[in-house]
Amino acid sequence: MKSLLDSLEKLLDTGGIKKDLVFLIVSGLFLLAEIFNINPLPFNAAFITIALCGIPIILNALIGLLGKFDIKADVLVAIAIIAAVFLGEYIVAGEVSLIMQLGSLLEELTVNKARSGIEKLVKLTPKIARRIVNGKEEIVDMDMVKEGDVLRVLPGDTICVDGEIISGQTSIDQSVMTGESVPVDKEVGDMVYSGTINQYGAFEMKATKVGNESSIQKMIELVKSSDANKADVVRLADKWATGIVLSALTVAIITYFLTKDVNRTLTILIVFCPCSLVLATPTAIMAAVSNATKHGFLVREGNALERLSVVSKAVFDKTGTLTYGQPEVEHIESLDDNYSEDDIFTLAAIAENNSEHPLGKAVVKAYIEKKNIDIKKADRFQMIPGRGIVADFEDKKILAGNLKMLEENNIDTTLISKKAQKYLDNSATIIYLCVNGKAVGIISLMDTIKENIESTMAEIEESNVFPVLLTGDNAKAARFIAKKLNIKKFMSDCLPKDKLRYIEESQALGHKVCMVGDGINDAPSLKKAHVGIAMGAMGSDIAVDAADIVLVHDDIRELPHLLALSRKMMRTIKSNITFSMILNFIAILLAVTNVINPVTGALVHNLGSLFVIINAIFLLNWTKEIDFRYLKENEDKIYDDISNMAKEKMLTSAVSEVNLRGLPTKSRILFEAGSQSHAVNKRLY
């Protein structure tokens, strides 16, 4: 029996959503043809609707009942369809079948399984390694590497196991582990991790953790295990199905024995059908998902918005989420009267012109953008991995690098270290510039915070969601960003397992956590969180695959709208359910008292479903309500936002002349509201 039911279930699933959609359209057309008496067929066209939509419902009900002892809403619907056909009410049977299948299709369209992205993590692990045996290099399969083996890693290689550098120095891209955008300098004695990328110098390392104990393999396991606790939301109609079915059958049987009226009994079964309940959730979700799409969100999990509505804590990664993820030149300071700041900038650009390091590229990019001229070429260029650049230009020997580079070249660092400290305290990265053995200047670079994130964090907190910063960056960088954005809770130096642990601990305390991130290192946390939101433009494919929602344009200023939308969606669902229950109760009373017949019962039943759909449609263009209290308290600040934008864009009066996405959400709302009837002025109203 079980094998037969399994085969039947597999047969019903053949063709997927495309088949269901075609069946639904064809069924609807034939049912309309029968209703309006334009049926060209020699038999009742509603039979086609019953065959395409009704029979699958009946078979699924049997599979659930016989194979899993599961009484779903389909059981009651199946009984109503069979009874309607038995009594010759074919249009009624077709209508019930069509509406139920519509609800199932909408639910199927909105509940999508997120791909795990695990196969992409696996691809990060190289298949071979360069092992050193008796001074000779041999290429071996990665599985053959054992703890204690000495491996050689060349520039551009992905490190295959965890280990300790025993010779050489380099810079390592650790973004896969920490999310930190700037490569980390490594030398003898430092640890390196599998999955990270060697940027520049060749080095030798001793393997310390191999196979499943290596960092990248542990991350794969984290992603696998983190998704285990995410169950799909069960349809409300199915949750209540047992009670609905038993109640319907009880009332119908009692009515039949008391009245012997088959039509009245059928009417009861029809009005008891939970079609509007089945539609209550998926229609609202579909409309809300469409709304979210207009605001730059791709909702990959149908129940993600439902889960988002109860979130109490939002955890943010820093790099690429709150910041742009690219270092930019912030300050240039000269320490020598013989060199102006422009001279320092020019010499640094000349030295870094051929550099592949992100900091060097940032200096060159900033110089070209500011000066709009070609950079002169150095006479000699040498990159020292883990240290910086040595370049000869005319009569000058230029060193551009870190503090260790200066110390190794016996350059006095007393003054330059003191000057650099104020920038380091603000989480900046420093390029120290020396000319002919003397420290002459500093270039400070920072990963720039995205525009208007401060107001976004304030809006999120106002919506009773507590923001938290978890970053792989150092404590100074984390503290600076947290203070700048008024985020009260932060953690620094976070590895993937640290972020995951924080989310697990928060959820164990009863918090519903939303994780917002972009890096591969965020994937386990995105999976584990109650809701995971990934950056789509800058984010890694693995992070996107692990998330429930993708922010396509990386503009998290829209996040307050999404939070409000999810709560509005849940209010709509609850109002739909309440209306459906009240309508069904009234219809049941009318059916029991023989006030309505099967056709009228089907009409009432369909009107309830129509109300649910129309109520959900209002979500399509819903926007976050204006907080007039906030506008009043912050009018001057918001006016400054608008004025600055107006000056930049030479605004006259039309809203369309300004890119309103450049303003904080509330400022845009105020501007849109005020500009409908007044020119921009100090009071706005």
TrEMBL record:
Annotated GO CC locations: plasma membrane
Name of the top EC class for this enzyme: translocase
Keyword field: ATP-binding, Cadmium, Cell membrane, Copper, Copper transport, Ion transport, Membrane, Metal-binding, Nucleotide-binding, Translocase, Transmembrane, Transmembrane helix, Transport
Coiled-coil region(s): none
One annotated GO molecular function: ATP binding
Ranges that cross the membrane: 20-38, 45-67, 73-92, 240-259, 265-289, 577-596, 602-622
Its membrane topology: Multi-pass membrane protein
Documented EC number(s): 7.2.2.21
Pfam families documented for this protein: E1-E2_ATPase (PF00122), Hydrolase (PF00702)
Annotated SUPFAM superfamilies: Calcium ATPase, transduction domain A, Calcium ATPase, transmembrane domain M, HAD-like
InterPro entries xref list: ATPase_P-typ_cyto_dom_N (IPR023299), ATPase_P-typ_P_site (IPR018303), ATPase_P-typ_TM_dom_sf (IPR023298), ATPase_P-typ_transduc_dom_A_sf (IPR008250), ATPase_P-type_domA (IPR059000), Cation_Transport_ATPase_IB (IPR051014), HAD-like_sf (IPR036412), HAD_sf (IPR023214)
Superkingdom of origin organism: Bacteria
Keyword ATP-binding attributed: yes
CDD domains (UniProt xref): P-type_ATPase_HM (cd02079)
Domain P-type ATPase A: 123-224
Reaction it catalyzes: Cd(2+)(in) + ATP + H2O = Cd(2+)(out) + ADP + phosphate + H(+)
Subcellular location: Cell membrane
GO term, biological process aspect, one: copper ion transport
Family in the record: Belongs to the cation transport ATPase (P-type) (TC 3.A.3) family. Type IB subfamily.
Family matches, as NCBIfam families: ATPase-IB1_Cu, ATPase-IB_hvy, ATPase_P-type
Name this protein carries in UniProt: Cd(2+)-exporting ATPase
Source organism per UniProt: Acetitomaculum ruminis DSM 5522
